[in-house]
Write a structure and sequence with these properties.
It is a single chain. By secondary structure, the protein is α/β, with parallel strands linked by helices. It folds into two domains: 129 residues, 3-Layer(aba) Sandwich (Rossmann fold), CATH 3.40.50.300; 105 residues, Magnesium chelatase subunit I, C-Terminal domain (Helicase, Ruva Protein, domain 3). It contains 14 helices and eleven strands. The strands form four sheets. The chain has a five-stranded parallel beta sheet with strand order 2-5-8-1-9. A two-stranded antiparallel sheet has the order 3-4. Helix 1 packs across helix 8, helix 2 crosses helix 10 and helix 9 crosses helix 10. The radius of gyration is 21 Å and the shape is globular.
């Protein structure tokens, strides 16, 4: 594979700088959310955002989509949302006496699935096909989704009525999961300043000429794949993931009492791709351990399944990851 040139890394750093600036204009604080969304876009994955209501999950997703001159669709998930409402359906045209395929809102470059855990298991399975394969099936016909294709899903952890737990297989399809926290008092003051200056509660639309185009996104994705990953970094990634399964160079004692299922090899792939993307964002053509550590929680937290004992002790997957990062030697 051809190595990245200095021009490639400079262009990539400039483009990601534009995306970061857009977020700074629209979303106050939430630096980790911004970095996670951008790095997931470049890595070619999907992301899940979890937080209580009112922390700008939807605004952040719309800001990312609005920064790129691609198509964007928002789907409000509800218990009665059917797979055909998402993927599309076939209708009979009496004029032509033929079935016509109507593609649903999933057919966009950026799809925001708001409150994904409110949709039923049948609808979630339709989402899984789109996320995993990049296409949908309507009436037996496979239809490719546009490139790039990215799903940004949100979920509210505090509501239980009318919600459905996301299956482990679908959770694993998300490259990253970020958990938003409340802003500081200073950041909340900045939010109020922004709203009063703007005079509107909604973010202004970015003019077409100021957006990145689809070719820029495809360039970033192709360039990220060409970022060098050394053998020591690969071993470090494998060791981190293996340690969540009770193996690795420094196994954690009694981990099986807290973790019933560790991260899959898909986590190793995601960690590597995210590391490449973050290195590119920072103008480097090689991955360093900090690129991997930076997003270890975002990549692993939804892939580690805790035991009942861990939940009764209020042990979180983030605490497990903290321990894993401590015991695995950094190259």
């Amino acid at each position: 594979m051809q190595a990245l040139s200095a021009e490639d890394t400079d262009r990539a750093k400039r483009l990601t700088g534009i995306l970061r600036a857009r977020f700074s204009d629209q979303v106050i604080g939430q630096t980790m959310l911004r970095e996670t969304l951008i790095v997931t876009l470049i890595a070619g994955g999907h992301t899940l955002i979890e937080s209580v209501p009112g922390l700008a999950k939807t605004t952040a997703a719309q800001t990312l989509a609005g920064s790129v001159a691609g198509s964007f669709k928002r789907v409000q998930c509800t218990p009665d949302l059917m797979p055909s409402d998402l993927t599309g359906t076939q209708i009979f045209d009496f004029k032509t006496q033929r079935l016509i395929t109507q593609i649903g809102p999933i057919n966009a470059n950026f799809v925001l699935l708001d409150e994904i855990n409110r949709s039923s298991a049948k609808t979630q399975s339709a989402m899984l096909e789109a996320m995993a394969e990049g296409n949908v099936t309507i009436g037996g016909q496979r239809i490719a989704l546009p490139r790039p294709f990215m799903v940004i899903a949100t979920e509210n952890p505090i509501e239980e009525e009318g919600t459905y737990t996301l299956p482990e297989a679908q959770m694993d399809r998300f490259f990253t999961k970020t958990v938003m926290t409340y802003p500081t008092a200073a950041e909340e003051n900045q939010i109020l300043d922004l709203l009063t200056r703007r005079g509107s509660d909604t973010a202004p639309t970015i003019p077409e000429g100021e957006r990145m185009d689809i070719d820029d996104v495809l360039f970033l994705r192709q360039a990220a794949r060409r970022v060098h990953v050394g053998e020591e970094i690969k071993k470090y990634v494998v060791d981190l993931v293996a340690t969540t399964r009770g193996a690795g160079p420094a196994p954690i004692k009694d981990l099986s009492s807290l973790v019933r299922l560790g991260a899959s090899p898909r986590a190793s792939i995601a960690l590597t791709r995210v590391g490449q993307a973050f290195a590119l964002m920072n103008g480097r053509d090689f991955v360093i351990p900090e690129d991997v550590r930076m997003f270890a929680h975002e990549v692993l937290r939804h892939r580690i399944l805790l035991t009942f004992e861990a939940m009764t002790q209020n042990v979180s997957s983030d605490e497990i990851i903290d321990h894993v990062l401590q015991v695995v030697p950094t190259p």
